[in-house]
Amino acid sequence: IEYYTDRLAGVSGPVLEPGVGNGRFFIPLCEAGHDVWGFDTSEDMLAYCKAECAAAGTAERSQQ
Q1: What is the dihedral of CA 30, 62, 21, 25, to 10 degrees?
Q2: Residue 39 belongs to what H/E stretch?
Q3: Which of 15, 17, 46 is nearest to 33 (CA)?
Q4: Burial label, 8 (beta-carbon count in 10 A; 0-12, 13-18, 19+)
Q5: Which ranges of 1-64 would DSSP assign to H, the alpha helix?
Q6: How far apart are CA 47 and CA 21, in angstroms?
Q7: C-alpha dihedral over 30, 34, 37, 39, to 10 degrees?
Q8: What global pTM score does this model have?
Q9: Of 36, 39, 42, 1, whose CA–CA distance to 19 is shortest?
Q10: Most CB within 10 Å of its CB: which of 4, 6, 49, 54?
Q11: Residue 38 to residues 12, 16, 22, Cα–Cα distance (Å)
Q12: pLDDT tens-digit series, residues 13-58
């Protein structure tokens, strides 16, 4: 996570994360203040990621 957070320092536009899965990277990037857009081919994984975002309090800042 730290590697990607460091690479995204100074990025002001949206960040795309393909294959968000369970939100392992998606949620920390949202928490770091990035405008993250993600997708996944699995509706089950999207539902899981949305639930994890809600639990982490990042649901209002994330786009899936």
Answers
A1: -10
A2: strand 36-39
A3: 15
A4: middle
A5: 2-7, 26-31, 43-56
A6: 9
A7: -50
A8: 0.83
A9: 39
A10: 49
A11: 17, 6, 11
A12: 999 999 999 999 999 999 998 999 999 999 999 999 999 999 988 8
Report yes or no: 40 and 10 within 8 Å, Cβ to Cβ: no
Q: What is the residue type of 53? A: C
Residue with tokens 């939100």: 23
Give the pair of three-digit tokens for residue 51. 């639930």
**Residue found under tokens 């899936």:** 64
Read off the tokens for 59. 């649901």
Q: Which amino acid does the sequence have at 12? A: S
Tokens 């990607």 belong to which residue? 4
